[in-house]
Fold this sequence. Notes:
It is built from 11 helices and 4 strands; from the N terminus they run ααββααααααββααα. With 347 residues, the chain is mostly helical.
Amino acid sequence: MEFNIDVRKKQLQSLSQYIKSSKDNVEAILQSLGWNAKNTVENEDPKINCLINPNHLLSFATSAEHIGLCQIRSYGYDINGDFLSDTPSPTTSTIKLDNKTKIEVLSTARFSNSTFRAAWNGHDPDPMTSDRLHSTFSADERLALYDYCVKNTEPPPEPEEFTLSVNNEKEGDKELSFEQQLIKERDAKRRRIKYKSVHTSRKSQVEITREVIDNQMDLYHQWLRQKKDTEDVLQHATDQINRLEDYSTNVASQNSVSYPNGDGVHKERPSSRLSSRHSTHSGSSRKNRPRDERGHRANGRHCSRERRESRDRRSRRRSRSRERRRHDKERPRRSPRDERSRGRDRR
Length: 347
């Protein structure tokens, strides 16, 4: 296949002319609008109109956040208000009610109850705050919707049963007789209020209930910690047992060797070399005794590292004591008169 250079040059020339003409047309349009191509490309930040309120001109980068806030404002909510929790993911314990289902449930409840009080108009969206919930639905409507949701959903899993053991007895406490209990109550009443251990006369029901809940939660947290500690101890013991079993299996496999018999079948028998290493029999030969890191042979049993270190420490202590005794013998002794003369010289 022959390549014609002249035809290729003509094609490139026509393409460059088309690009130049297109560029001139774009520049002419920008000049008619009063724009500059360089500034337009550098400051590219497209603006869009808000979907909720078309009068709002937004930046494309912050459009999603603005639309969410603008929608909340359009419903009449305050941005700094206390909103309800987000809708959970759909499960067997949750249900979603549309307007048609709400109308059917509320109509059925209204027909069955003559004193039913209605407040929802059938068009308002789902409330997003607790205040709007109470103003949108009446108490009868909220009860009807609650009964429908409980009836058509599965209950949450029951928590694990646990026992809270409270030990209020202090060390040294003894069982008091009836007279001693009366004396103790009398003494407690005679005390001032700030010295009384427990006083609930001036506490409201909310404060008492809060203290009860706090105490119960503290005991529950303590029970969870004890349960976790017990599980950790059991897991650690199980791991120790498994490691010991693996170690015993490895030792048993190392202490047995296979040898072929007359039928060509390999049988296992204990190894004489390994058994003699740990043997304590006095007739074991010196050649079969193990050597330590320094190349010394152990006497009888296998000499462990701890035994060698303790033996070295004892030998060093003996040598230091011998050296000290020898130095004391060689040092000349001084008489008491010399000691007194040395003291006068110092003074």
